[in-house]
Every structure is written in structure tokens, then in C-alpha cells.
């Protein structure tokens, strides 16, 4: 990790009960932030947008003291966003770490579409995106590390999952998967509540689960996740990626090449967990 951003974690004043949400980009970070917000406040009417309740602590474009001030002002149980690996975050017994996994190919396709929307809103055009998600995905898979300390986008996802998998049996590390959230949202929310030690009255569950669905998050996008000047339509941020959408773009040979690449990094058990479908 960049030394400046790493210093944020070293100097960040944690509190007992803090929750750190670790996920590679487009793997369900905002979804789990929303779930944590609903569990902590126990109402769909959140007191502030998610980017204020749970700012990205190590956002490379963010200002350290401003992010720290946001968190210092909170009196609720805090849930902290990061795209960093667990290996880059202090391991503290009083903190719970939620790691979110997703099929890397599906995450890549979601990233492609979000960048397209961002470019359209700004009036710019990233030529590297091109007009074909398939061509872009093939380049994404084949991209080599920029340096020994700067992995490729695919390599970065795999390393984050490897770090989390190695710690999956620790009592304060929780692994959840995008496909599990898609298949059984209520069940996963109840499991997370149990792991976080949060009690929710039974009559509140239907409203909380409904508020965590993509349809409700999309409808409330202007309130819960505003992106002023970044996207033309905040609701477009909540584009629900279809399971298997990445693999569908590839030929049998190209998909085999992808699996050969990732098998050089991760063991079969974690790959089976990472690539499964709902």
C-alpha cells in the first residue's frame, strides 16, 4: 500500500465495536455498507448518506483530516469502508472485519459499465474502455503487474481474497459473498447481525431487508449514495450485475486461460468459493 494511505490506518483511532468493510471495487462494498447501516440504525430512514456515515477511509483522493473528522463525530457504532486488503489494515481483536467476495469476471464487467457511465456524465472518454466489454475484459485479464509492489487489477482482487481466506477462521473476520447476498438477502443479513452482536426486533426485519434490496437502494439513490458531478443519474450506480455476465463474454478457450491464470495464485478451495454462482 502507498505509504501515505498506510499511515491513515496506523494513526486511525479505532473504537471497540468498529466494523471494517473490506472489499475490492464492484464486489458489493456499498451493498454491505447499506446492510451495516440498517443493522446499526435499525431503520431505513438513515440519518445521512452512506458516503458520510461510512466514508472511504483510504480514498487516495480524500483528505486525511476530513475523513478522520467524519468518523470522530459519529456517536453510533461505526462501519468503515476500505478497498484495501486485510493485510494492510491493523488487526485488532475489538474490531470486526467483513470481507466481501465476488466472481472477479463479474466485478470487472461491473467496473467497465460504471466507468462508461462516469465518462458519459463527465463528457470525457477513456479510450482504453473502447466500445466492447469483451475486448476490455480480455485486456483486463491479461494485464501484467505494473511493478512488484503494484499488482494488476485481477491480481489485486485475488490477493485481497487470499489474505482474507487465510484469516477466515478468526472470530472477528467474516467472509460474505455477493452471490449469497443475491440468493438469500434476509438470511445473510441475519447472519451478519449475529456475527456483529446486533439484536433486531423481529417486526423490524421485513422493512430492513426491503431497504437493502437493489430496487429500494436504486429508488433512494439520491439520498443514500449521491454522486454529484460524477454520474448523471445516481440510481445508475446501483446497476445489479448478473451472475456469470463476465464468463458469458468469453470463449471456452479464453475462459480456460483465465482459470489457468487464477489457479497460479489461489488454491482450489478458495477459487471454488470465489467463482460459485447463486
Automatic annotation (TrEMBL):
Signal peptide: none annotated. Pfam families: Sulfotransfer_1. InterPro entries: P-loop_NTPase, Sulfotransferase_dom. Keywords: Transferase. Residues 17-254 form the Sulfotransferase domain. GO terms for molecular function: sulfotransferase activity. It comes from the Bacteria. The keyword Metal-binding does not apply. Belongs to the sulfotransferase 1 family. PANTHER family: SULFOTRANSFERASE SULT (PTHR11783). This is Sulfotransferase domain-containing protein. The lineage of its organism: Bacteria, Bacillati, Actinomycetota, Actinomycetes, Kitasatosporales.
Amino acid at each position: 500500500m502507498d505509504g501515505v494511505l498506510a499511515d491513515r490506518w496506523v494513526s486511525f483511532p479505532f473504537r471497540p465495536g468498529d466494523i471494517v468493510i473490506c472489499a475490492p471495487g464492484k464486489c458489493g462494498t456499498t451493498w454491505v455498507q447499506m446492510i451495516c447501516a440498517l443493522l446499526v440504525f435499525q431503520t431505513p430512514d438513515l440519518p445521512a448518506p452512506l458516503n458520510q456515515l461510512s466514508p472511504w477511509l483510504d480514498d487516495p483522493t480524500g483528505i486525511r483530516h476530513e475523513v478522520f473528522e467524519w468518523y470522530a463525530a459519529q456517536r453510533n457504532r461505526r462501519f468503515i469502508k476500505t478497498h484495501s486488503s486485510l493485510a494492510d489494515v491493523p488487526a485488532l481483536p475489538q474490531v470486526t472485519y467483513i470481507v466481501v467476495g465476488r466472481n472477479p469476471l463479474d466485478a470487472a464487467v461491473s467496473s467497465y459499465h460504471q466507468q462508461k457511465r462516469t465518462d458519459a456524465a463527465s463528457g470525457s472518454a477513456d479510450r482504453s474502455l473502447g466500445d466492447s466489454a469483451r475486448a476490455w475484459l480480455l485486456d483486463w485479464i491479461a494485464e501484467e503487474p505494473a511493478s512488484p509492489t503494484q499488482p494488476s487489477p485481477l491480481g489485486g482482487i485475488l490477493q485481497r481474497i487470499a489474505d482474507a481466506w487465510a484469516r477466515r477462521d478468526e472470530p472477528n473476520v467474516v467472509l460474505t459473498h455477493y452471490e449469497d447476498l443475491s440468493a438469500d438477502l434476509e438470511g445473510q443479513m441475519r447472519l451478519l447481525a449475529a456475527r456483529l452482536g446486533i439484536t433486531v426486533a423481529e417486526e423490524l426485519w421485513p422493512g430492513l431487508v426491503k431497504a437493502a434490496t437493489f430496487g429500494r437502494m436504486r429508488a433512494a439513490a439520491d439520498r443514500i449514495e449521491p454522486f454529484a458531478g460524477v454520474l448523471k443519474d445516481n440510481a445508475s450506480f446501483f446497476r445489479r450485475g448478473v451472475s456469470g455476465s463476465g464468463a458469458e463474454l468469453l470463449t471456452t478457450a479464453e475462459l480456460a486461460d483465465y482459470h489457468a491464470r487464477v489457479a497460479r495464485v489461489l488454491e482450489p478451495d478458495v477459487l471454488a468459493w470465489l467463482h460459485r454462482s447463486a
